[in-house]
């Protein structure tokens, strides 16, 4: 009780009351635009073919007189400890001793439409044909740059927290599992998904808005697994909309105001609010289960007529509510010290006492990682390659016969430990050619005054996140007005975390709960322990076991582009299909160019295209790049043998476009035959008139 009083008192006794040093930065992290499989849906053939929206890293640094913390939201599918380690290494070269494992948090938005190959564990690199160094390089470079830019802008300012309900964004994709949670617990909440947006607002000392972090629990899966263009999806576009509103004269990713829509306990939450239906018959369906005919898929869809329109609608709703929170009342000012703490734990050695809904105390332990059969069936957001019914052991597909014959059968101890899970792949008992799943995970807490951020290593379901928040509140802010937020997919990615009750049904989320039925109780114990350490004022804990470095063991089957050859009788950059002479507002204009392979240079902090307008003084002003919603950069190989390719650029003319003369330009690099040397090229279309 005394410790809690001291902790709460310290929230009030702060030098200069509530002024902090605040730094906010943004940088491009877009990986190879083509030829690399996207990470998220696990669909091998979902290889990139261009860009719709670029990926960004958004960094928020907060300092008081004695300490600092950094929260970074990244437009990526997931996060790994090796990425954080590489970022810290580069930061310490520039800013020695300032940032470390304890005070840096890296949280992915969980978009499913960005290039993969940057995770080290076998399970996450299977669909991408192994490791892709270029993707990792882009992430590390961009994350580091966003933090350095934020650090350069550190200045005094104030922080505020606000929250509000947001409907029309999300539904539960596993309502049956949610119903297995105790009735008394469910009665405490109005919805089976969290619909509260929590916003952290940053202002300069003079009151100028600098940025916001918005935490809202929803999957970034409005773009489905047929999409082939790099996209930050609904939450990424919400960020773009907010930043365009606040930085009207700046290019995307270049403005001062930065808006992050960060992930939370989104494990069982989908933005596809029309729910699942059979693709052909239109009848309601579910996964797993034989609810559709053999030749049709069970897929959920969003509010729009197609995935792109659904992305736009969800993003606009997210942005609109976040903007209301930023300018609205009531709003609470953040006061108090900055604290952060971190510890690695080996989930396979952890034990816990758990009180069942019936009141019985049981002893549980963490299992070696394993994936259940329904993991391979996918979800209503993106069906898997094979169909398994809950609890089944066969998909009647010969490929899985090969997999199950290649991977050793789970041991009796593993089968017993995972209880209701029918194990498809015992990833924790198989390490060929390298470890398939993590065993050691990152756990972290940060206190920014009365806001507590729980940085969690995976996708926690709605009720799992609620229990974590409750456990932390009971230690740090009982009978007070502290706010606890879940920062999802943070530092480590270790798949899903369900409640023990949800686990029993073994839907996708339960089958993907790596460490067995007591995964959540172990985390509840761990985050309570971290909270107690913050309460005690511990500067550091035992760091825990270091994750195994797998960098030397990575593998790849993805060939590197060897050379480029222009189409016969053309040079790189030639415009071979011109836009029309005139175009109207709302019309989509196209131009095609002879191109090189986008993997030659990912064009970080640059662009593969520009749309330009001729000004009155006869200068060309850029009005859009490949980061804009209204543009698309599409790349296609026309000859595999000669490595010849074409880039198609589309521009859907916004309704507020100024009439006049316009042109489209394309930029890229080609690879010379033989030596691997790169050459730069550009191309320009003929002018066209927008009326």
TrEMBL record:
UniProt-annotated binding residues for Zn(2+): 110, 219, 459, 496
Neutral/alkaline non-lysosomal ceramidase N-terminal domain span: 20-524
Cofactor note: Binds 1 zinc ion per subunit.
Pfam family, one: Ceramidase_alk
Gene Ontology CC annotation, any one: membrane
Keywords: Hydrolase, Lipid metabolism, Metal-binding, Signal, Sphingolipid metabolism, Zinc
Family recorded in the similarity comment: Belongs to the neutral ceramidase family.
Protein name (Swiss-Prot/TrEMBL): Neutral ceramidase
